[in-house]
C-alpha cells in the first residue's frame, strides 16, 4: 500500500479525488463493547486523508506500531455523515465493515470511523465521497442489470473502474 518514501501505491486505474489538509485526525473504535469482546481503539491526532475512486486512505503524520496507515474500500463505508459542532472542528463519521485480513480483529463485525478535519475540508471530503459512491453504485446497478454481476451479492462489486466516468455532467 505504501512505497519506501511513504507514498500511496495506486491500485490499477485508481485516481486521487481529494486530499485533506495535514492535520486531519482519525479514530477507529468499536461503537459498543460487548462482554467477552475486547474493544478496539486506534487513534491518530494528525495525518492526511486521501480519497480515491476506489478507497479511502489515511496516512498518519507520525506512524505508530498500531497505525502505520489505514485503507478501506469505498463500498465498506456505510452510514456516513458530517457533524458540524458550534465550537470545534467538523467531523466525518462512518460505519466501517472491516476487510478480512486487514488488521482489524475478525470478531469486530463493524467499527466506527471518525475523521476530524482540524483545518477544514470536511464538507468537500463528504461531497466528493458521496459523489463517487453514488457513481460507483450506479455503475454496479448497470452491471448487475446487464448480467455482468451475478445476483444480489453483498460483497464488494467487481466492476471495471475504467468504464466509470468520474466527471460530473453540467447541471
User: For the terminal residues, how far apart are their CA atoms?
Assistant: 37 Å
Number of helices: 1
Helix content: 10-25%
Tally of extended strands? Answer: 9
Radius of gyration: 17 Å
What kind of sheet is the major sheet?
5 strands, antiparallel
Notes on the protein architecture:
The protein is globular. Helices cover 14% and strands 30% of the residues. The termini are far apart. It is α+β, with helices and mostly antiparallel strands. A five-stranded antiparallel beta sheet has the order 3-2-9-8-7, with helices on one face. A hairpin with a 2-residue loop joins β4 and β5. The relative contact order is 0.19. The mean pLDDT is 84. The protein has one helix at residues 122-145, and strands spanning 16-19, 24-29, 41-44, 47-52, 55-60, 70-73, 77-83, 90-96, 111-117. The protein contains one helix and nine strands; from the N terminus they run βββββββββα.
